[in-house]
Amino acid sequence: MRLKGSFALLWLKPLQSVSERSDTIYILRKRFISIIITIVIMIAIPAQTALAVLGDRTLSMGDQGYDVEQLQRDLGYLGYPVGQADGIYGWNTFQAVKSFQVNNGLVVDGITGKETAQQVIKQVSTPATNNVNAESVAVPTVQVNSSRGSSSIMLSQSDIYDLARLVYGEARGECFEGQVAIVAVVLNRLKSDKFGNSVKQVIYESGAFTAVSDGQFYMEPDNSSYQAVQAALRGWDPTGGAIYYWNPVTATNKWVWSRTIIKQIGKHVFAI
Questions:
Q1: I need a labelling partner for 128 at 20 to 30 A (CA). Which of 18, 121, 154, 251 fits?
Q2: Measured between alpha carbons, how far is 135 from 230 in angstroms, rounded to an integer?
Q3: Does the residue 59 lie in any domain?
């Protein structure tokens, strides 16, 4: 009975008048609008940063976003290795920017300001008016480790040509990073004591590369293939040290799955 009386009292005597309720609704509505505006601002600011493209802002250590990833990929394309293009402006990116600035007569501070960004964009965007070929790629010395000890070998123009043919046969249609990764695997094998001590020994090892086995290796490479070779020879290893790779969709060799996968680039997985 007592409980029913309480309900009756609330029904007969509301806690607030109509005007009080209107004031309360007005206040709550203002607060709700303020909260929505705050949320929109909080979402919009990071989104603008994430969607920024190279040159929109000055980039330095600790910055993150799509523009940082774009910078990393462009530097890698130009032959300044940054490791993984993860969109985080870390130490490797800082050092790559400094190297780029040194080689292009810019202020060397590791910061990607307007001038540095424009120079990177200019070099990446400049179309190749002349065909790239084996003779146009600098021939470096590669350190080789074997059971007989460490030694250095000079790659020949024929080695450059074979590397470009391997890229074209194995990874045409892949992103540029994926093409560089093919060369990186060959160089990693060359530096290892588990494979041959020359580019030809590594590439022509029986069953090592599908393109050699099915004949696609013997097609003429394009400019992108030579550029991938050049980027890898300058030190860019997007695989992180892999010595194996395969397409998980088409691979028929069961043994490769015993290897530890450390990276996927395009259609290929890379392993050690």
A1: 154
A2: 11
A3: no
